[in-house]
From TrEMBL:
PANTHER family membership: ENOLASE SUPERFAMILY, MANDELATE RACEMASE, MITOCHONDRIAL ENOLASE SUPERFAMILY MEMBER 1
Keywords for this protein: Magnesium, Metal-binding
Domain Mandelate racemase/muconate lactonizing enzyme C-terminal: 200-324
Obligatory cofactor(s): Mg(2+)
InterPro entries per record: Enolase-like_C_sf, Enolase-like_N, Enolase_C-like, Mandel_Rmase/mucon_lact_enz_CS, Mandelate_racemase_C, Mandelate_racemase_N_dom, RHMD-like
Matches recorded under Gene3D superfamilies: Enolase-like C-terminal domain (3.20.20.120), Enolase-like, N-terminal domain (3.30.390.10)
PROSITE patterns hit by this protein: MR_MLE_2
GO biological processes: amino acid catabolic process; carbohydrate catabolic process
GO molecular function, one term: magnesium ion binding
Species for this entry: Rhodotorula diobovata
Name of the molecule in the record: Enolase C-terminal domain-like protein
Length: 482
């Protein structure tokens, strides 16, 4: 008897990250990293785990939406599900509820909730095949890859036939790339050095620690405020980071990056690259005027300079900052493939930052990887959150092996928070590269310890019903108008 999906559970998990300002930025000052965590079960004992990420309040709303989407998978036979084409059909089915669709379509709460369910189904499929997710997808034929990908609404940018051709062209050398990847790992950058709320001493200490870990790409959160004093703060903080990462003595012993990996990135004398993230705070011209004042820090890019949906605004910022050698990166709030289609068409970005849960899971991400590869834009996924590092290493590996065929200029975000809660947390090698997930039973690497769930489930878990939680619950007025 083939297995059948018979049940699901959804848990509202929240971690009190606002206490130490990990993850803080100019827009999101006091997030409690949270997950709407979905577990799918079959009657023959198979499980699949998936989550979507939020930063606290509202996670219950997402959980409610996850339940509605997950209920649509009940009754599906695993033999219908566990093929590339089956996953493709599942995706379209989940997106096609004629009533739920109204509260999107394909954006916002319903879309990120769909991601949790889609990712859980992929996790279950990968576990069933006894392969980590990246390998499951990398072992697809180009035809299977196309069958798993959604092309709805984007065939004016890329057709399934074009995608097939692109994927076939990358078949040669795939084996060699797998071998190379297992030796080298996948290049990473660190965001953990300069969160918004960190004082200078902490920034300096964390920058030195990141160098010791082998990193040569560093990202800092801009203070990104509208008053001049904060430009000065940014200038000071960025100069501080530059003074450390550009100092040959500070970087002695760190692996030397290849010249090719630094092309167009305004790298310093030691091969260090600096990036800035402003998390959507500015209007278009404000972004240009502000970032120009940071030109001496020679950032590779400004990330999320304005509203994430503003395709033409990003294009304008990109054009105006180009003379300063500063690029534009965006995508962590890119809510669907149609947005990325337009961003790419309008030449709005230099670096595309997909989010594994903002887009509705693996099927839609494959579509964006294909569109970016066609345009030659590097994909450097977003990973600041709980569980996102676990996910994106698989996605970047898929991009390298099957789609873009390169990882030379790509860097995958790495943050070190909350890894202790996962059964298969991501790890970094001494070169500051992600190790390749290799356990045949880890699926999409998002299985979480039962103890962690019991502690952080909201609001009745051990942590949230304890005395320490009151301080966290009082957080949350970070964006209140003064
Ligand atoms: Mg960001």
């Amino acid at each position: 008897m083939p297995g059948t999906v018979t049940s699901y559970t959804v848990e509202d998990l929240r971690f009190p990250t606002s206490l130490d300002e990990a993850g803080s930025d100019a827009m999101n000052k006091d997030g409690d990293y949270s997950a709407a965590y979905c577990t799918l079960r079959t009657d023959d004992g198979q499980v699949g785990y998936g989550l979507t990420f939020t930063i606290g309040r509202g996670n219950d709303i997402v959980c409610s939406a996850v339940e509605q989407v997950a209920s649509r998978l009940v009754g599906w036979k695993t033999e219908e599900l566990f093929t590339a084409a089956g996953m493709g059909r599942m995706w379209h089915y989940l997106l096609a509820d004629s009533q739920l669709r109204w509260i999107g379509p394909e954006k916002g709460v319903i879309h990120i909730a769909t991601a949790a369910v889609v990712n859980a189904a992929w996790d279950m499929y990968a576990r069933h095949e006894k392969k980590p997710l990246w390998q499951l997808v990398a072992d697809f034929t180009p035809e299977e890859f196309v069958a798993a990908t959604t092309f709805r609404y984007i065939t004016d940018a890329i057709t399934p036939e074009e995608a097939l051709e692109l994927l076939k062209s990358k078949e040669a050398g795939k084996k060699e790339r797998v071998a190379k990847l297992k030796v080298e790992g996948y290049p990473a950058y660190t965001t953990s050095v300069g969160w918004f709320g960190y004082p200078d001493e902490k920034v300096a200490k964390l920058t030195r620690e990141a160098i010791a870990q082998g990193f040569n790409h560093f990202k800092a959160s801009s203070q990104a405020m509208k008053v001049g004093a904060d430009v000065a703060t940014d200038q000071r903080r960025l100069a501080l980071i530059r003074s450390i990462i550009d100092d040959p003595k500070e970087c002695a012993g760190r692996p030397v990056p290849s010249a090719g990996s630094l092309v167009g990135k305004q790298a310093g004398p030691t091969g260090s690259v600096l990036m800035i993230d402003s998390n959507q705070v500015w209007d278009v011209q404000e972004a240009v005027d502000y970032v120009k004042q940071l030109k001496d820090a020679r950032p590779w890019f400004i990330e999320e300079p304005t509203a994430p949906d503003d395709i033409l605004g990003h294009a304008s910022i990109r054009k105006q900052l180009k003379p300063y050698g500063i690029g534009v990166a965006t995508g962590e709030h890119g809510h669907n493939r149609m947005l990325f289609k337009q961003m790419l068409a309008a030449e709005s970005l230099d670096v595309l930052q997909i989010d594994s849960c903002r887009l509705a899971g693996v099927n839609e991400i494959l579509a964006v990887l294909l569109m970016a590869a066609k345009k030659g834009i590097p994909v450097c996924p977003h990973a600041g959150g709980v569980g996102l590092t676990n996910y994106v290493v698989h996605l970047s590996i898929i991009d390298y092996l099957c789609v873009s065929g390169t990882k030379e200029r790509n860097v995958l975000e790495y943050v070190s928070h909350l890894h202790e809660h996962f059964e298969h947390p991501p790890t970094i090698n001494p070169h500051g590269f992600y190790n390749v997930p290799l356990d045949p039973n880890e699926g999409y690497s998002i299985g979480m310890h039962d103890e962690s769930k019991a502690t952080y489930v909201y609001p009745h878990g051990k942590y949230w019903s304890g005395a320490g939680a009151d301080k966290v619950k009082a957080n949350g007025d970070g964006n209140k108008l003064a």
